[in-house]
Amino acid sequence: MSDTLQKINEFVEKESAFVEGVTAAIRSKIVGQQNLIDRLIIGLLTQSHVLIEGVPGLAKTLTVHTLAQALDLSFSRIQFTPDLLPADIIGTMIYNQSTGNFTAKKGPIFANCILADEINRAPAKVQSALLEAMQEKQVTLGDTTHKLDAPFMVLATQNPVEQDGTYPLPEAQLDRFLMKITIDYPSRDEERLILDNMDSIEKGDVKTVINAQDIVRAQSVVEKIYVDGRIKDYVLDLVFATRNPDAANLKSLAPLIRYGASPRASLALIKAAKAHAFINRRGYVTPDDVKAIGRDVLRHRVIPTFEAEAEELTSDDIVDQVFSEIIVP
């Protein structure tokens, strides 16, 4: 290991010490869901947004709220419904009769941590208002543009069971989420632990571990993590294999993929792999970091064909096959 890489590694090891405390604080109220907790921290460290899919009752809302408390961040929960309007999210201008002026009434988007609950229940115009704020990190009310406070993170949830009265996110909007996380029921032992600790979980306080300034500093540290050229080539091999399976000697996948991953996927894989290395207290990215976050980054960016759906193959199955076939550096 070169001297420069050694220094980066030591620096990251020191700066990432808080991650263990944040995880412990969240786990004081959340049983299980370790993968979800890790992915939320990765999203925060990469200044990105995360889509969470799971049936009701899996503590999605509680996990996000607990994360905000542990990090001492302002928190807003927006319940998406079919009658929601863009102004209900970003705010509006209010006329003041006494002064004859319009004043800005800021909406719930003006917080550090936003929970967009059941995002697919609101029409496209409302979804677009939220996604514009996610992309630009700013909101325009009247003639004034308001910057959103850093760190800013949107955690959107959607229910995979109920499809009546929903407005599924288009692929172009899905692409703006760094990761799509799917969560499942807890194990029997975990659910028994939830029952045993029900009262203490509901009433217990969450310890604040770090604050917004510390998070912003950690985000800048993540950007400095070393990525070898061979890792970048590996990422490109993975992404291009989803676009042109024949060229990657994956001819069996060609009829199963309607659209492959976009260039955002390459960027997202590198960003998420850096953050994964950070939470594991390393100053460099390994192929295992890419593999660990690969399914979450790619599952909503690889669109299966009707033939794949007829064979009951999901995007997860396709991504798993790509990772199993592409040579690791």
Morphology: globular
Total strands: the figure is 11
CATH domain class of the largest domain = Alpha Beta
Q: Largest sheet, order of strands side by side?
A: 2-5-8-1-9
Average pLDDT number: 87
Number of helices: 15
Which superfamily, in CATH terms, is the homologous superfamily of the largest domain?
A: P-loop containing nucleotide triphosphate hydrolases
SSE topology string: HHHEHEHEEEHEEEHEHHHHEHHEHH
Poorly predicted tracts of residues: none
Describe the structure.
By secondary structure, the chain is an alpha/beta fold. The protein has 2 domains: 3-218, P-loop containing nucleotide triphosphate hydrolases (Rossmann fold); 225-325, Helicase, Ruva Protein, domain 3 (Orthogonal Bundle), CATH 1.10.8.80. Helices cover 47% and strands 15% of the residues. The chain contains 15 helices and 11 strands. The protein has helices at residues 3-15, 18-27, 34-45, 60-70, 87-90, 124-136, 171-174, 188-196, 198-203, 212-223, 229-243, 263-279, 287-298, 306-310, 315-325; strands spanning 50-53, 75-79, 91-96, 101-106, 113-117, 138-141, 144-147, 153-158, 179-182, 257-259, 303-304. Strands 2-5-8-1-9 form a 5-stranded parallel beta sheet. Strand 6 and strand 7 form a beta hairpin. Helix 3 (34-45) crosses helix 12 and helix 13 runs antiparallel to helix 15. The model has no long low-confidence stretch (mean pLDDT 87).
